[in-house]
Amino acid sequence: MRGAILAGLTLAAIPCRVASAAPPNDLRPAPAKIVGGSASETCAWPGVVALQSGGLCTGTLVHPRVVVYAAHCGTFHTEVLLGEDIAAPARAVETLTCERNSDLFAVSSMDYAYCLLAEPVEDLAITPPLFGCDEDLIEVGTPVTIVGFGDTTSEGPEQVGLKHEAQTEIVGYLTTIGIGGMGTGADAGDSGGPAFVELDDGSWRMLGLVSGGGGDGATVQYVPAPVTIAWIEDRTGIDLTPCHAGDGSWAPTPACEGFYVATEPGATWAEGCPSARSGPSERCGPPWTELEDLTPPSVAFVEPLDGDALPSAPIELDVLAAADDDGVGVAEVRLAIDGAPWLDAFGLASVDQVPPYRFEGVSLAEDGEHLLELEAVDWLGNRAVVGATIIVGDPGDETGEGTTDETETGATTSSEAMDDGDGACNCTSQPGAPALPGLAALVSLCLAGRLRRPGVA
């Protein structure tokens, strides 16, 4: 046996924005690979991706712009690879930033990270993370499918880089989920790779992602998908659970459908991997198609307030907003400055899909009055706008005359469909650093609540 077994550890979360570096030998998680499985067909599990910076890992596309993987795989990934063979990928998608929840290189429920993609992958069927009422499926005996690009043999030279899958089951669950064993399991190169579970409508969810454990077909520990959601949503401002509110209650949106069911026979990457997709989900309550809402959401400034006087330019400030909707819930909040959409650090129109709604590092280069506008849109396209005028460079003026606040005259509304666009993260990618020698020997699987919208009763 080439991979040593390492028992799961319960470790406290550490704040994000840590530099990626090879860990000390005594903390390195144990290699694990998918053995006992078979090669995936073309376009099967299209959302399972490979990451190669500093070593091979596996990740899952859980949203058109978000890939989830293991924290111990580092943050230096400039692209993710789609397809079945990393030597000849079907696509390479650039990342804007990658960030990890913890710098603890050990088997742990905190061993998760994400990459924000530069462009959304909109033609592939998504497999979202398990959450809410579906969490009951995390129990011993639940059948799962594990997928990854890792080693596929328990003897001889490692064979990595080809997407493989295997059917196995949950064998234990404490803080991490024990999956596989008896000759079937993840191994080197499968770090961050998913375990999928099938729902009663035929669609799939990412139940967990590989952290570490024994190799060569032994049981491997997976991070439970539900524990990853709040932190990733907070960092990216993107809603990863379109069927549930932040507290796990049923709160379906128009995005609560169209999830991956199965790849159509003869599918190709050139065609966008045509797949059977689920209809509007009613697994835990009524589908979103039965919801009605003609009332716009409410939105207000928390900071700064209308009439606030700020120091002379150039200045940077954070804009905080409060938004609520008693119907289908708030889909997103947007910020405009002096009539133009505020662009984030990546040059994208800044959008926040989850509370607390905030826009960090808003820079103003000129003194004078500036009009800030917040637009809140609910999931059926109803809109509300509120404005606040701030004064830059004239802290002695406390009259507030000439300022504008649309909340005094009522929010503007519209039943038009929402503009296209996804949320974007205001964080920055981690600085690069070379992988240290011995990364291939990591004791890891890496080869060398917040309420967003009201629940439905």
List the helices and strands and how they pair.
Layout: E1 38-39, E2 48-51, E3 57-63, E4 66-69, E5 79-82, E6 91-100, E7 113-117, E8 143-148, E9 164-173, E10 177-179, E11 194-198, E12 204-213, E13 220-224, H1 226-236, E14 260-263, E15 275-277, E16 298-303, E17 309-310, E18 315-324, E19 330-337, E20 340-341, E21 351-352, E22 357-364, E23 368-378, E24 383-392
Parallel strand pairs: 17-24
Antiparallel strand pairs: 1-9, 2-3, 3-4, 4-7, 5-6, 6-7, 8-9, 8-11, 9-10, 10-13, 11-12, 12-13, 14-15, 16-18, 18-22, 19-20, 19-21, 19-23, 23-24
Order of strands, widest sheet: 8-9-10-13-12-11
Tell me about the largest β-sheet.
6 strands, antiparallel, barrel
Radius of gyration: 23 Å
CATH topology of the largest domain: Thrombin, subunit H
CATH top level assignment of the largest domain: Mainly Beta
What is the strand content? 25-35%
Question: What is the total domain count?
Answer: 2
Percent in helix? under 10%
Task: State the end-to-end distance.
Answer: 52 Å
Please mark out the parts with pLDDT under 50 across 5 or more consecutive residues, or reply none. 1-33, 397-452
CATH architecture descriptor text of the largest domain:
Beta Barrel
What is the H/E string? Answer: EEEEEEEEEEEEEHEEEEEEEEEEE
Arithmetic mean of pLDDT: 81
Oligomer classification? single chain
Treating each run of at least 4 consecutive H or I residues as one helix, how many helices?
A: 1
Say how many strands there are. Answer: 24
Keywords: Disulfide bond, Signal
Domain Peptidase S1: 34-237
Biased composition (Acidic residues): 395-408
Signal peptide: 1-21
